[in-house]
Every structure is written in structure tokens, then in C-alpha cells.
Amino acid sequence: VDLDIARQELKEFIPHVKNISDSSIKKMAGRDLMRFKEFKKQGMAVKFGRFTQKENKQIRKNVEEFLALTGIDSAEKLLFTSRYPEDKDTIHRLKTEHHFCEKISEGIPRPWRLIYYRARKMFDPNNYKGRYTREEKEQLKKYQALHGNDWKKISELMSRSNLSVAMKFSEIKSAINYGSWTKEETRKLMSAVKDVLSRKLRTENPSSLSSLEQSDTDLWIDREQLHQPLPWTEIETKVGSRYWRQCKQKWNSILTRKLTKGKQLYKGTRGLQTKITLIKRLYETKAEDASEVNWDELSNAFGDVPRNYLQSKFYRLKVSFVPFWKRKTFSEIIDYLYEKKLPELEENL
């Protein structure tokens, strides 16, 4: 694989391709590039973000068909082969012979890796074991004391998924504070986020690091697109007094305030224009489900605002203006806003 050519061709489908490692580019050139070109011919764009119900059904169908084709007797064996060492060689051979990569990703315009991870989440029986018992929580504490944060090892010992044991331990170890955030807690949160982003920038784009390190707290928040995924369990540890979900929620509220810079996007004439633009852009997506909307891309039309800001504005629109909105599908809500409310807003403007 010529890496430069592969990276250039993939750029058409994946804008952030410059941040992807060479080894991943090689894999994507083999697994994804031809698929992406075929989807382009069909008028389908490559997607990211939350999987839709339709895509979940397609993954389930692809996995079931592959099992029928190969005679492998369970999705767990197919997707978690390391749990069955005695069958490992046979399963790997069948996967190669019957083109597992192509089969599992059939009909889904997403990178193969994301489809594979989604399938593992859907078919992992350890993901659906309900609440942790008191005994399991004590067991988890003991295993973590023995093995540290080796969640793969701990998940095998507890027959729970990696993510499940990591998140549960983060819950039970924290001295959780449920009151209002203090200034000191907020300072620790901002510092923790800045630390992890400095490390990320150092890895991905060293030239941009100097401006980050020289700036004060408010300015670096304004300059960076900080509503990207962050390692919340690590940030939780640095804050010390809050559970990771609280840290994430607080960070989102800080982003909305900082990135909008106090602009009253929903006031007066500007507010009307914002509602009009939001309805038009959502209608143009032709999305059947909210999870099909690229909220990050949509937010660019409104300036430097995070996705959750626009999502909250859309929620306010449908609750305020769409009768019986709970009984309507996402596309029906958009159609109603476009056909009934948009002309009224444009007249008012």
C-alpha cells in the first residue's frame, strides 16, 4: 500500500484522516476504501456517530448470515474468539476463508473497525448482566487492588465487559459529591481537561501545542474545538471528588458558556434566524432518526458552538411548536417544523 496515495484517497471520505496512524491507514485501505467508493456510487456518505436501529438490524443480519455460512455455533465465538482457545485456529481459518471483514460490514457505510466494535458490544453476553451485587462490588475492589487498571484481565475474572468493570469501579471508588460545584472543583476540572488535551495535541499536532501552553484558561477554550471525546475516567481521577458523568456534564455546561461567548443566539432577530437555519439544515439532512444527524457538522453553520447546544435548541423547538411530538417520528417532527412553523418564522423575521 502506498500510504500517501491511500491517505489522499481516504481523505475524501474521512476528513480527520491526517490524525490516523500509518498502520490504521493500511488496514482502512484494504478493508474500507473500495467499500467507501461503492457507497459513493450509490449516493451514500460515510457515517460516524451513534448507530441507527436500521444499522443495528443490518449488523445482526450480517452476523447471523456469517454464522450460517461457516457453521460457527455462536456470535460470542465469532467475535470473542480468545474466550475459546480450543476453537481459535478453526475460527480464524473460517474467518479468512469466508471474508469476515467484508461480510460483517455489508450494507453499512461506516469504517469497518467501528462496525466490528459495535457488533462486539451488541453480541457480548457480559454486557447484559444487570446491576452489580454487593458481593460483585467487593470482588471488583479486590481484583483492582491486585491487577490495577488491567480491565481486560478483571473483565475475564468477573465475566463482565471491559467497559462495565472500568465504569463501575470509577463509581464505587469516588468520594462522590452531589452538591453544587465549588470553584476549586471547577478549577481542577479545567486543569484536568487541559492536561489531557495537551497530551493529545503533543501526539497529533506538536506545532499547535505552543499556543495552547502560552494561553490563559479562557482563551484556550475559545480556540480549541473541545467538545471532542475525552478520557473521562482519567479526568475523574484528577478531579478527585466527582463521578465521571458529573465531570462530563459540567464540562458540557462550561463549553456552552465559553464557546458561545455569551451570544444570545435565541433572542430577538438573531433568535428567529437561528431557528430558521436550524429547521432548514435538519430538513436538508433527510435523516430518519436523530442519530443520523451529524450534529458536529451542523454546529459549524452557527459558529463555534458545541453539538449539545444545538440539540437542546432542537428539543425546545419541537416541545414548543409540534403538537403531540412524542407520538411522532424524528422525520415527521422535522417535516412539521419545515412545513408549518418555518413559513411563520420567516414572515416574523
From TrEMBL:
One of its GO terms (biological process) is termination of RNA polymerase I transcription. InterPro entries: Homeodomain-like_sf (IPR009057), SANT/Myb (IPR001005), TTF1-like (IPR053078). One of its GO terms (molecular function) is chromatin binding. The gene is Ttf1. Residues 124-172, 173-255 form the Myb-like domain. GO terms for cellular component: nucleolus. The lineage of its organism: Eukaryota, Metazoa, Chordata, Craniata, Vertebrata. It comes from the Eukaryota. SMART domains: SANT. This is TTF1 factor.
